[in-house]
């Protein structure tokens, strides 16, 4: 599997060269559940009173959605934490780089395939951006019944996405710092 590589701009690293990081380096794919991201998903689940919450990475090169954090999902999804993109609703958030609000998923063509993994009545997803403002994850909640999502719900999800973004930026910064320290030791 190929992981996307991202660049941390030189303004952030303080050096001319840019540092590379992969999604797996940041603990976003092919990793066991991560407590930092699990707390964010748990908050989304609780604040929005939704039975399912997740932080997902859309990997178009691997044709899959990997759920870095997943709360409340049934098996087999809970065990595998991934699904083919043809079943993904989150891919629409990633592609548009904008929130997606679906109050009645039972009558929305974008969600029909996802129904195979359990009843999706309503969906709310927001983009999570990386250090160079590219969408690298999607934070979303699902309700089993149709429901009206309020502006405050979208705002709460965007605030939680900002927490995930800070965690991702911290991890990218720590990786960059480690690379710079190794370079400095090698130059000495």
UniProtKB/TrEMBL annotation:
Pfam families, per database record: GAF
InterPro entries (UniProt xref): GAF (IPR003018), GAF-like_dom_sf (IPR029016)
Every GAF domain range: 32-178
Source organism superkingdom: Bacteria
Coiled coil: none
PANTHER family tied to this protein: GAF DOMAIN-CONTAINING PROTEIN (PTHR43102:SF2), SLR1143 PROTEIN (PTHR43102)
Record-given protein name: GAF domain-containing protein
